[in-house]
Amino acid sequence: MLMLNQTDLTPGSFILNGIPGLEDMHMWISFPFCSMYIVAMVGNCGLLYLIHYEDSLHRPMYYFLAMLSLTDLFICSSTIPKALSILWFHFKEISFDGCLVQMFFVHTFTGMESGVLMLMALDRYVAICYPLHYSTALTNSVIAKAGLSTFLRGVLLIIPFTFLTKRLPYCRGNIIPHTYCDHMSVAKLSCGDIKVNVVYGLTVALLIGSFDILCITISYTMILRAVVSLSSADARQKAFSTCTAHICAIVFSYSPAFFSFFSHLFGGHTIPPSCHIIVANIYLLLPPAMNPVVYGVKTKQIRDCIVKILLGSKDIKSQSI
Question: What is the pLDDT of residues 164-191, one digit of tens each?
């Protein structure tokens, strides 16, 4: 029997097929995707600008928010431009190495977003339960180390995905029914044994997701106990209000992830693939688009900074006139 070299079974490129079954609606689907991407880019860049230039926002809570904004920018920018080029112009081809790079960035920064949300929960826990130690416990050095650890956790856990995927032989075509290179969508094109890929993928998802959700749950349990013990209703309301935006960010981030996970687990044959792909894109688009809006609306300090900037620009214009 003729033995084929591994390189003979490695495609030069893949074809990202968009959303199968909804080809006629690609143009219509692209408009909400594009709108959410623009909101995400403008909103997160605006937040980063505010946090950098406003001295009143140089606090741990806003440093973590800056990390979240940077992560959101990387997540949506690594997938949505390519998705829009598929939906608008039918530019479906992506090189094999380019696909692996996109897969690495997508999974690394989605894992990092989960980690940053966990760090923000710990930040709220320290701020509410130990307010006198808040500034001494969360120094700039501690915040930088926590952010770097979260990033390195994602990188070290996701790098094996790249090698596990690269080693596989691909003889089932090169068409990926998706708008971006997802780990399992690529691995399913292989005619080799992908059990290691499946097991490692589930292990990483459980390690990152379970650990972060556990820390968030414990943090908010302790926060709830501390807030309920407050004697003043105004103090309880003020304490809860500082957590509202973060709770919304958690809901926006984890809801599509849970839907996608459980639908694959229990409804893989009843839910159409197009629904899975749309939810996967919403999972990457909804948090980046909504997080800056929610924090802008729910956080008084950010609202005050926006008003100050707007009033300052109006004063400059009136003086020039």
Answer: 999 999 988 899 999 999 998 899 899 8
